[in-house]
Structure formats: structure tokens, C-alpha cells
């Protein structure tokens, strides 16, 4: 297994026409594969608009089983392109039980593994608790031909515990499919603070764990709730010291491609031995809701 892998992340604007969204995704996946990408990552809930802007029981009709139409489609595409493909699905697990789920396909089209989003937000415009049960897959890296993938989803990216556990279990790369943006009514200085915090948080996970990070967000304005969401794009790939290797714009659709050197993890962890100096004998309070 080579230490150098070529990765592609697809930042896309979505419309209410799922077929058009999927066709555009296919074209962009083919573009990334033709450029030599060995792994391609898609944004969160990429087939549709971000429907969690409001609570509407009719949106449950968007959910799919595993296996189902989406898994069959992306399985064929991964096999055709000979790529590891990280996708996102509104999963119908059982009647009345739904998850926000990432499916990873191996380059032969088989399902390498899945991750169900563990941290579920409930904020204005992001009413995910109405739709998704918390995940129960744990924080388990998914083995693939390009390495062990620590796949997490959007709101998970604010929690250092999730990134740390993935890293302690041997993840080679941290991956965050995302759907995050601004309320158009927010002031410009507040928008800047939010976007900067989002970037810094994920770069911090890279630094604290000595791992590269792939973060892929959607872009464009989607009006489907309380004023809509202006998704801020800025998908990026960074190295194990938080250094930006490639970064997309705020508002444009892009296929971002970069080489990742996984061997840098060993080098960085030698000079910044955070794992060596962890005081695991003093961390019991992390298991409490609040250590008062």
C-alpha cells in the first residue's frame, strides 16, 4: 500500500431535483477518477437538498434502505472508476428508525463499512433530531485499500473525543462529510467567526492526532426553512500539522484534488509526541456530563 494517495473531494450546489444532483455527482466523480484519484469523498446528504431545515414528516420518504438504490448506484460507480468512494445517505434502518449514515465503498464496488452519525444537532435550520437516531456503530475506522478511514459526519467535527478515538484505533485519515452554512441574517463579523471556528476545529483534530483531514462541505443557498441556509463551502484537505494542502472557495462548485502523504503521520508524531504524553490515568472526568 503506497503512502502517497491522491484524494478528491467534491463541493457541490444542490437543487430540489435529486436526479440532477446525482448526475452532477457522477460527472464530478468521473472527473476526479480520470485525474487519478484513489479516494473520492462526497458532501453530507448529497443526493438532495438539506431537508433538515424544517420538521416535515413527508421528508422521511427520502430515506433509503441498505442495500438500496443509492448503494447500488454508487457501488457500480466505485467499481467502474476503481476508487474508494465515501458517500452519505439518509438511511431507513427499520420502520420509524432512521440514521444519517456514511457508506464507504471499496474500489471493487463492495461496501467496506458504514458509520452512523453519533452527534445529532437540534438548532434553528438544523433540526436533525427530528429525523435521525444517534448512531450505534461506535468510532471504528473503516479498512480500505487506501488505509483506515476515520469517517465522521458534520456535527461530529466539533468533538475532539470522536477524532481522538478514531485515531487511537488506527485511523490513517480523518474524513468529515459536511453540510454547514450561515443564516443569511447573521452579521458579517459573526459569519467570519463561525467559518473560522469550523476550519480551526478540524485543523486542530489534524494537529492533535497527527493525521490528515478531508473535510467536504456543500455550497450555495438553499431555501427550505427559516430564512434558508447559505452553505459556506470552503472544503479543504490538510496535513497532520494542520497545514492546508488544498482549499475550495466559499461559493463555487469544485472538484478539489491533492496528494496526501500518510508517512508524515509517523514523522509528525515523533516530533510532537502527544500520544506518548497523554495522562490516561487522569482522564476519568471526561466520562461525566459535567465534572462538578
Protein topology:
Elements lengths: L3 E8 L6 H17 L4 E4 L26 H13 L2 E11 L2 E9 L5 E6 L5 E2 L2 E2 L14 E3 L2 E5 L8 H9 L4 E5 L3 E2 L5 H22 L3 E4 L2 E4 L6 E4 L3 E3 L5 E4 L6 E8 L2 H8 L21
Parallel strand pairs: 1-2, 2-3, 9-10, 10-12
Antiparallel strand pairs: 1-17, 3-4, 4-5, 6-7, 8-9, 11-14, 12-15, 13-14, 15-16
Helix pairs in contact: 3-4
Structural key phrases:
Nitrilase/N-carbamoyl-D-aminoacid amidohydrolase, 292 residues, globular, alpha+beta, 6-stranded mixed β-sheet, 17 strands
What can be said about this structure in brief?
By secondary structure, the chain is of the alpha+beta class. It has one domain (4-287): Carbon-nitrogen hydrolase (Nitrilase/N-carbamoyl-D-aminoacid amidohydrolase, 4-Layer Sandwich).
The end-to-end distance, rounded to whole angstroms, is 48 Å
CATH class: Alpha Beta
Q: Uncertain spans, ≥5 residues at pLDDT below 50?
A: none
- CATH superfamily membership: Carbon-nitrogen hydrolase
Q: Give the beta-strand count.
A: 17
DSSP helix count? Answer: 5
* Morphology: globular
Describe the structure.
The chain is 24% helix and 29% strand. It is an alpha+beta fold and 292 residues long. The protein has one domain (4-287): Carbon-nitrogen hydrolase (Nitrilase/N-carbamoyl-D-aminoacid amidohydrolase, 4-Layer Sandwich), CATH 3.60.110. A 6-stranded mixed β-sheet has the order 5-4-3-2-1-17. It has a 6-stranded mixed β-sheet with strand order 8-9-10-12-15-16, covered by helices on one side. It has a 3-stranded antiparallel β-sheet with strand order 11-14-13, with helices on one face. Helix 3 (160-168) packs parallel to helix 4 (188-209). The chain is globular and about 50 Å long.
